[in-house]
Amino acid sequence: MKDNAAGLLPFRIEPLTSSLICLVAIVMWCVVNSPIEPLPFTFPAPLPRLEGPLRENKALQAAVRLFEGRILGPESFAVDENGTIYTGTADGRILSIYRISTNKSSSSEEQFDKSPHLVVRTGLAHPHCGQPHMEEQCGRPKGMKFGPDGYLYVVDSYKGLIKVDVHKEKMETLVSSEVGCDGLPFRFLNSLDIAPDDGIYFTDSTFKWQRRDFRYAVLETRPDGRLLHYDSTTGVCRTVLSGLYLANGLTLSHDKTFILVNEMSVARIRRYFLSGKKKGTSDVFADNLPGFPDNIKPNSRGNYFVGMGSVRFKGSSPIGSFLDLIAPYPSLKKFIAAIMPLQAYNVFMPKHALAVEIDDSGIIVNSLHDPEAETIAAVSELFEFNNTLYIGHFQSSYLGVLHMNDLNEQRGACNET
Q1: What percent of the chain has pLDDT over 90?
Q2: Which residues lie across from 46 on neighbouring strands?
Q3: What confidence category does residue 31 fall into, taking pLDDT thresholds of 50, 70 and 90?
Q4: Where is the Strictosidine synthase conserved region domain (predicted)?
Q5: CATH topology of domain 34-416
Q6: pLDDT tens per residue, range 170-203
Q7: In the chain, where are the structural domains located?
Q8: Closest to 309 measured CA to CA, from 343, 359, 264, 247
Q9: Which residues, at least 6 apart from 302, have a Cβ–Cβ distance to it below 8 Å?
Q10: Averaged confidence pLDDT in the chain
Q11: 3-state secondary structure 9-48
Q12: Are 353 and 376 in contact (CB under 8 A)?
C-alpha cells in the first residue's frame, strides 16, 4: 500500500505544482509589465479616529443639489465682483452660475438660474466630452480665480495656464502644457492662487501622469509634483518647489506669508514660506489627515476648508485604509495596477463624504460629514461665499450648495442626539 501511495503521489502533486507555476508566472508577468513604477511609502500610524473635532455628523446632508444630471464634475469655484459663481466641468466647459436671490436665510434651487451659462470651452466640443479618453481633446478646467484685473485665471489639466475674459467669452493661453516650465512640460495642472503682486502660483500634480490616470499616480507614491509660479508682468514661469507627492489644491495663507499645498497621495499638507526667516523653505503643515486632501480654500473664520477626495480613518473600512495597507509594497502595487481597470479602484473607496476645517497652525478644528454619502457623495472643494458653501467634486453630476444657517441647524440637531 505504501509503495502504491508513493507511486501515486507524483500524479497527485503534478496538477497542483503546475497550477502554482502558472500562477507565479502570471504574477511575475503582471509585475514586470505593470504600467507603474511605484515607491514604498509608510503612512503615519495610527489612523485618525472620528472623535473631537472629527466627530461624525451629518452636516453635509443639509446641502441642496443643483443642476442634477445637467452638470458634470464641477470641482473648483471662483466668484466675480458681482457675486456670480464660476466653475469648470469634466467636459471642458467653464460655466457661470447666477444666483437670483441672496436675501433668504437658506439655499434652494429656486434662488439660482435654471441652468448654468457657458462662458468658454477650453478644448473642442464633442459628443463624448466628459469621458476620460476625450479629456486631452476636450480639456479639463480645474483651479480658478479672478485676478485684480478682472480676468478669470484657470489651470486646465491638459491645456495649460489660461486667462479668460468672462464678458467677451474669450480665452488666451498664457503658458501651454507643451511649453511647460523650466523645460518640463505640464502633465497634470491642478490648482492655483494669485498673490498680491499678481503672481500666479499653481500646481503640476505629476510630471508623469495625466489627470485621467491620476489613480496610477496615487498608487506610485512618487514625489514628482511641483509648485510653480507665473510672473504676470514678465510672462516667466519658474519652479518654486519640487518633490511633492501628487501636488493638488493650494492656497495662500490669510496673511500671505506662506502657501499651503495638498499632497494628496500621502494624506498631508505642505507649507512653503514666502517671507520671514524661513523664506524659500518648506515644512509639513498637517500630516496623517483623515482623508486624501483634494482642494483647500480659505474661509471667513481665518481657517481653511479641505475637501477629502477619499477618507482614511479608523473604521472607515473593514480592512482598514486600502492605500495605507498597500503603500509599503511596490510589487503588490505593480500587480494591482496591472490587473485592475482604473475605474475599479472606486470599489475600495469608502462611501463617506468628508471635509475638514484646519486652523493657521495645521490643527483640525471642525469637520463636515455625510457618513452614508447620501446627499453629497464626496468632496473635492468647499468654497465659501456670501454665507454659502459651494460643494464640488470631480465626479459629481450635481453642484452642492449649503447655506451656513442650514449647516448650523444640522450641527445643532447632531449635538442634541
Answers
A1: 80
A2: none
A3: low
A4: 190-276
A5: Neuraminidase (2.120.10)
A6: 999 999 999 999 999 999 999 999 999 989 999 9
A7: 34-416
A8: 264
A9: 254, 359, 360
A10: 92
A11: HHHHHHHHHHHHHHHHHHHHHHHHCCCCCCCCCCCCCCCC
A12: yes
